[in-house]
Design goal:
The protein has 9 helices and no strands. By secondary structure, it is mainly α. Helix 6 runs antiparallel to helix 7, helix 6 packs antiparallel against helix 9 and helix 7 runs antiparallel to helix 8.
């Protein structure tokens, strides 16, 4: 892949071709899931990055398949997303909100940004709850029930459009967390809980980016267009 060719491709396409590239894009703060329809050039221009340097970094990554997913149809992918990414969120979110409030109560006087961090974490927890319910109890079972070679109807398309819009809102909140925390940089006076919070927020961002990428750019298009 030449630098010129890479610049014109979307972030979603680049990650779909080689999922290991997600690590590079996460590290430099380029959202390949909720805003993955942007070309690499457009995304770099918006963030003041050099697309040539980003392309070189992407090309240095060895090919890698998504961890734990061995392939299959739409139903198998939906089950994988639920068992891997949804299960993680069900366990992580409640205690993460508690930790954000704890760190704010101890360090908020010296680091006022922690007030906003705790608020955004609470918003993410509140948003994810009903979102996961809709996917697990409605959209995923509907996708899994589609006969091979068929596509979902207008009603499924409308429900998916709502989920994609919610994904975009979640992506924007994750981007705000990255900005508030200066890329999850713990200050010198941060304690072990402070470090744990930022480590877990960083993992939440990277896991959610892969999670939403699989839904927005693989599962949902396959349910509406592709014969799988």
């Amino acid at each position: 892949m030449t630098i010129a060719a890479a610049s014109g491709r979307t972030l979603a396409e680049l990650v779909a071709e080689n999922p290991a590239r997600a690590v590079v894009l996460d590290r430099i703060g380029l959202d390949f899931c909720c805003h993955g329809n942007r070309s690499l050039y457009e995304a770099c221009a918006a963030d003041g990055l050099d697309p040539d340097e980003v392309t070189v970094a992407l090309e240095a990554v060895a090919d890698e398949v998504p961890s734990g997913f061995s392939g299959g149809g739409r139903g198998e992918l939906a089950a994988y997303v639920e068992s891997t990414h949804h299960s993680y969120l069900h366990v992580e979110l409640e205690s993460l909100e508690w930790l954000a409030n704890k760190v704010r109560s101890v360090h908020g006087g010296r680091h006022p940004e922690l007030e906003d961090v705790a608020v955004v974490v609470a918003e993410i927890v509140a948003d994810f709850g009903p979102h996961l319910v809709v996917e697990e109890n409605d959209v995923f079972p509907t996708i899994a029930s589609l006969a091979p070679g068929t596509a979902g109807d207008a009603q499924l398309a409308a429900r998916i459009a709502d989920l994609v819009a919610e994904h975009t809102a979640l992506g924007d909140k994750l981007a705000r967390l990255r900005k508030l925390t200066d890329g999850y940089t713990v200050p010198n006076d941060g304690c072990a809980s402070y470090q744990s919070l930022y480590d877990r927020l960083s993992h939440l961002e990277s896991d959610t980016h892969v999670h939403i990428h699989l839904e927005n750019n693989v599962l949902f298009p396959a349910a509406l267009v592709e014969a799988v």
